[in-house]
Design goal:
The chain is α+β, with helices and mostly antiparallel strands. The chain has eleven helices and 17 strands. Helix 3 crosses helix 11, helix 7 runs antiparallel to helix 8 and helix 9 packs across helix 11. The protein is globular and about 80 Å long.
């Protein structure tokens, strides 16, 4: 009996549905923001399942949650110190537990629970690889409450220091540092570990969030890399005036300048090949009344491309294009997130391909259009991802759906790949 054959489809599905009830919203969706009581409730449920199969549980300074199944090597230290010899390092898998405000039941949490299912399968089959295997639930991948996303994995990998996020505020004005301190105080009973480390390998399972696997009737996406992302916030400051009495020529209308800026950005980001991704996702306006000229408008930019040259050139042009388009308002452009395109390591990509081939599952090599925590593990250790199909490619939406059998196939590939890399 190997780890793949011990994967229990019903157990995995039941755990997914139990998690989905924590933060459930209409339409079978989930709204479970990071560092909230709902987040902590979900983490406690996960911890209970992990401890039931003998896993050690710990949390680091970024509130990343770690579940560890020991290997046979008695010298494999549990703290993942950066100076560990490579032959003692664990194999790590995981994803995130937070959702978008109108999220679904599988984004992120599938990778965590597929990792736990792999550990459960190893437990049931009595298999103990030489290396430890760890499941991590990263903090704030979505960026739905605190932007940008992937704060936990960025802090862990050294991409950005944890202190760099301290003053980020959520829509209610709560500082990230304060929410994190409250959360860690609530989890003070969980052993603390060092932030950082150097695993032997990292492999993340995820729903595709796109339509290719379903359209091409493939069971597993063997992910080859992740396209780059740059996020910006544009803020325009004008002057409030009466909508009925102030002539248009005398106004400093922040909304009208915002429209001019977005139109200019659409021209900058035009791509006949439809490879580039440009999104204005969040807009705020003040005073936001129907009969007043707006004195303030702000909007976010999400720009992505797989070519680092395109990502650099057009991203660097954003501020100048906005400044040139604005007529009356003062404007500032702040870049809030920048992740270069990455290619995944052949060690991990090959392990996924071999596992899927061994199980007779049809595969599709493919890049990821969405960014994931795996992007920030690339400089630290050999890294890869696997995708499973999702219906019509819908994600960040209550209608998000994957079949139980598809999710179980992904967990089987994950379990076999992890076991192989763990020796």
């Amino acid at each position: 009996m190997d780890a793949a054959s011990a994967v229990d489809q019903d157990r995995l599905w039941d755990r997914l549905m139990q998690m989905a009830r924590i933060g459930a919203i209409a339409g079978d969706g989930v709204n479970r923001a990071c560092l909230t009581p709902l987040d902590r409730e979900a983490r406690r449920l996960l911890i209970g399942w992990a401890r039931a199969i003998g896993c050690a549980v710990s949390v680091d300074d970024a509130a990343n949650l770690w579940l560890r199944r020991a290997g046979t090597d008695p010298d494999a230290a549990p703290d993942l110190a950066p100076d560990l010899a490579p032959d003692l390092a664990p194999v790590v898998t995981g994803s995130h537990m937070d959702t978008q405000p109108q999220g679904g039941r599988f984004d992120g949490i599938y990778g965590v629970l597929a990792g736990l299912e792999a550990l459960s399968a190893l437990h049931d089959a009595g298999i103990v690889p030489r290396r430890p295997i760890e499941v991590v639930a990263w903090t704030n991948e979505e960026g739905g409450r605190f932007a940008p996303g992937c704060m936990g994995s960025m802090a862990w990998s050294g991409h950005k220091p944890l202190a760099a996020f301290a003053e980020v505020r959520d829509p209610d004005g709560v500082r990230f540092a304060d929410a994190l301190a409250e959360h860690l105080a609530e989890e003070a009973d969980i052993p603390r570990r060092a932030l950082g480390g150097r695993p032997h390998a990292y492999l993340e399972a995820h729903i595709e969030q796109g339509p290719r696997l379903e359209r091409e009737e493939k069971a597993i996406g063997v992910v080859t890399g992740i396209q780059g992302s740059r996020w910006f916030t544009v803020t325009l400051r004008g002057e409030t005036a009466h909508a009925g009495t102030t002539p248009l020529g005398l106004r400093r209308d922040a909304v009208q300048d915002m429209v001019r800026a977005i139109a200019a950005l659409n021209a900058l980001m035009a791509d006949p090949a439809d490879v580039l991704r440009f999104t204005v996702g969040r807009i705020t306006v003040s005073p936001n009344t129907s009969n007043s000229v707006a004195d303030r408008a702000a909007f976010t930019i999400d720009f992505r491309h797989p070519d680092p040259a395109v990502l650099a050139a057009r991203g660097d042009a954003v501020a100048g294009v906005v400044q040139a388009a604005v007529r009356d308002a003062e404007v500032s452009v702040e870049e809030t997130f920048h992740a270069r395109p990455v290619a995944f390591d052949p060690l991990v990509v090959g392990a996924v391909q071999a596992a899927a081939d061994g199980l007779g599952l049809a595969t599709l090599p493919m890049p990821s259009g969405a960014f994931h925590d795996a992007q920030f593990a690339v400089p630290v250790c050999p890294t890869g991802m696997l995708f499973v199909p999702c219906r019509r490619g819908i994600s960040h939406n209550p209608a998000e759906w994957s079949e139980p059998a598809q999710l179980a196939d992904g967990a089987r590939v994950l379990a076999r790949a992890l076991t192989a890399m763990a020796g």
